[in-house]
């Protein structure tokens, strides 16, 4: 069994059966579009409960496995922590369905209903931030507080990134390799690469050697299309719950960045500008910025992030 912390470069199944998650994984059955699917999730109970539940939404290139230090810290503080792998990601089914943030939000509400959880503190990273925003807009009565960690979708990519069809994106996804994933993670996610980040690449690239990788690549293309076509940035002003926006000041993430000229890249994806702009759009929003940090503060500056999280989760 391969762990999510250290393993050799290996072929991984597209539902990560040979990746060991930090806590036990359960599955919720979902029937949609004449398909029987499974949604994976971790439900971590604290030793001493404080009566509150936190739900964590992962980014596009990840699954619940990269939340380990956050789960540990929250659980130690008394929070129940629910960590789903969205349909199409991680250990969940790689389904050929119409992907929408609305539908994914509904799946997560179904998970909460199944677990008997009425109210959550909701945190989303990257694509998970877009999903957390949509969930909060759809189900404001279920969200006590919204925490956004370097969410994508702070700008409308359709206005400056050339359109690619899912078929176009599929062809690009099929070229995935260990080298291409590592280069992307090095240049897009972190200000300085460290060996301990290699496990993220090994999971992200390991699926490319699977015989089922074409299915994984098509799902990746469909979810890229979802991000591109379903912006949330025009609705930030409608958020009705207290919100905290955490951003790395060196984050320069743009969905579809490879299709842009250097001039266009310089104009967009600047989180040191987008962060303050977005915080002003969201009523009752607090902005917390991390110096010398890119797209994933909870991994790049874990101590600072966890301290800020503990101070602002209430």
From TrEMBL:
<protein>
    <submittedName>
        <fullName>Alpha/beta fold hydrolase</fullName>
    </submittedName>
</protein>
<dbReference type="InterPro" id="IPR029058">
    <property type="entry name" value="AB_hydrolase_fold"/>
</dbReference>
<dbReference type="Pfam" id="PF00561">
    <property type="entry name" value="Abhydrolase_1"/>
</dbReference>
<keyword id="KW-0378">Hydrolase</keyword>
<feature type="domain" description="AB hydrolase-1">
    <location>
        <begin position="53"/>
        <end position="300"/>
    </location>
</feature>
<dbReference type="InterPro" id="IPR050266">
    <property type="entry name" value="AB_hydrolase_sf"/>
</dbReference>
<dbReference type="GO" id="GO:0016787">
    <property type="term" value="F:hydrolase activity"/>
</dbReference>
<dbReference type="InterPro" id="IPR000073">
    <property type="entry name" value="AB_hydrolase_1"/>
</dbReference>
<dbReference type="InterPro" id="IPR000639">
    <property type="entry name" value="Epox_hydrolase-like"/>
</dbReference>
């Amino acid at each position: 069994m391969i762990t999510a912390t250290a393993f050799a470069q290996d072929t991984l199944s597209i539902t990560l059966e040979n990746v060991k998650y930090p806590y036990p994984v359960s599955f919720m059955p979902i029937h949609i579009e004449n398909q029987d699917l499974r949604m994976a999730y971790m439900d971590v109970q604290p030793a001493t409960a404080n009566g509150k539940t936190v739900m964590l939404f992962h980014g596009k290139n990840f699954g619940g496995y990269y939340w380990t230090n956050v789960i540990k810290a929250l659980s130690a503080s008394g929070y129940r922590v629910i960590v789903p792998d969205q349909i199409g990601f991680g250990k969940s089914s790689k389904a050929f369905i119409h992907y929408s943030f609305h539908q994914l939000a509904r799946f997560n509400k179904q998970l909460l209903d199944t677990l008997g959880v009425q109210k959550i503190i909701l945190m989303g990273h990257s694509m998970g931030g877009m999903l957390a925003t949509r969930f909060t807009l759809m189900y404001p009565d279920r969200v006590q507080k919204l925490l956004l960690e370097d969410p994508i979708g702070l700008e409308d990519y359709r206005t400056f990134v050339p359109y690619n069809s899912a078929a176009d994106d599929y062809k690009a996804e099929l070229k995935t390799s260990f080298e291409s994933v590592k280069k992307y993670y090095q240049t897009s996610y972190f200000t300085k690469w460290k060996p301990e980040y290699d496990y993220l690449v090994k999971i992200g690239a390991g699926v490319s050697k699977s015989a089922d990788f074409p299915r994984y690549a098509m799902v990746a293309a469909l979810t890229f299309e979802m991000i591109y076509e379903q912006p949330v940035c025009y609705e930030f002003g409608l958020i009705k719950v207290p919100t905290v926006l955490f951003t790395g000041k060196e984050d320069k993430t743009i969905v579809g960045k490879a299709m842009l000229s250097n001039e266009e890249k310089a104009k967009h994806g600047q989180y040191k500008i987008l962060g303050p702009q977005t915080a002003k759009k969201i009523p009752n929003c607090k902005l917390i910025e991390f110096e010398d940090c890119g797209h994933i503060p909870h991994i790049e500056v874990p101590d600072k992030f966890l301290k800020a999280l503990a101070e602002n989760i209430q």
